[in-house]
């Protein structure tokens, strides 16, 4: 078997799903995808999830835009994602590493105001003082315009979805710049939930 | 701020969500929860996810049962979970570590036949030969009656949901027995999807 567990050198990627809790979930997902410019990333969807690979700014730009377009329908939409960078493995999408840093969807989505509740967890693999790295990134989130609170196995973020995505992207960039050899981050985000926050 | 990122010594836990893609998602979720005996675990739900903490057999028994009861409605249901054990931190649910190994939901759900497509990823934190540990667990899954195939950032499992959950529980037990200090496993499972497998 090809050992295809993670990504090639420094290409970043995300394995994610959008879950609209509505009968017309297909229309919401395809409608959101049609509004997003994915020309600077490698993208593939199957029956479980969607994979996006490329440079860090573009994988966050694309996932943020898909989520905001889906949530902007007013549906209760959950976003579940695992972002990853730095593990040796496959090479699909390597060509997209030549793209520049100009993101393609920011202008179209940054004016969408959408409150979101998020839980994120950071997993610096490959050893070292990984708990210290996690705590430092949680502290840094407090300066990014979102409400930060503790929960089990994760950190909770509440606020504007655009600010939350921008903050999570910065966590990822900081981990790369700190020299972490392999970083994984999970994100669960919910918009328009009928449940009230506890 | 309380640094509440992960679990206390050897208590296991899971942070998960069930996402039925239907207008009646609330009824599907609450209906599934009502059918599950959660008396041997600590459980708490908020607007983003549900937390279950306790001994390994019970956290898998409870999540498997909730998923199978929800999927058994025929709805397209996604299950997104992060299982975790071994990180220093909070203590909620410690009292449940005194429970025995007799699982409470197995008899009621093991006769539910439900095909599921799953992607799982294993993150042994705290260093060591973590890629070797991951590859060994992927190999071991092949003997557990499910179809195993590679995908980006994860390993795909196809087959009966009961066998998939039992296999994932065994991965977790094996990691504990191997002495891994802190193990995290993410699981994305989909049932009754209108999309065909690629």
Automatic annotation (TrEMBL), chains A, B:
Any coiled-coil regions, as ranges: none
Entries under Gene3D superfamilies matching the protein: 3.30.70.930
Residues that coordinate or bind thiamine: 18, 50
GO terms assigned for molecular function: thiamine binding
Annotated Thiamin/hydroxymethyl pyrimidine-binding YkoF putative domain residues: 11-90, 116-195
UniProt protein name: YKOF-related Family
């Amino acid at each position: 078997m090809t050992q295809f567990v993670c990504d090639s050198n420094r290409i970043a990627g995300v394995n994610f799903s959008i879950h609209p809790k509505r009968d017309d979930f297909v229309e919401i997902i395809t409608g959101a995808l049609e509004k997003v410019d994915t020309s600077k990333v490698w993208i593939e969807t199957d029956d479980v999830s969607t994979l996006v690979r490329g440079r860090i700014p573009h994988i966050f730009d694309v996932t943020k835009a898909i989520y905001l377009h889906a949530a902007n329908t007013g549906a209760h939409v959950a976003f579940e994602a695992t972002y990853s960078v730095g593990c040796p493995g496959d090479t699909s999408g390597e060509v997209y590493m030549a793209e520049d840093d100009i993101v393609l969807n920011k202008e179209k989505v940054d004016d969408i105001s959408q409150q979101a509740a998020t839980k994120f967890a950071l997993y610096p693999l490959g050893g070292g003082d990984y708990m210290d790295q996690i705590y430092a990134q949680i502290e840094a989130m407090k300066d990014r315009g979102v409400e930060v609170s503790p929960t089990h196995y994760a950190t909770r973020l509440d606020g504007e979805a655009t600010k939350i995505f921008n903050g999570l992207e910065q966590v990822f960039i900081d981990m790369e710049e700190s020299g972490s050899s392999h970083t994984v981050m999970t994100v669960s985000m919910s918009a328009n939930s009928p449940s009230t926050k506890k």
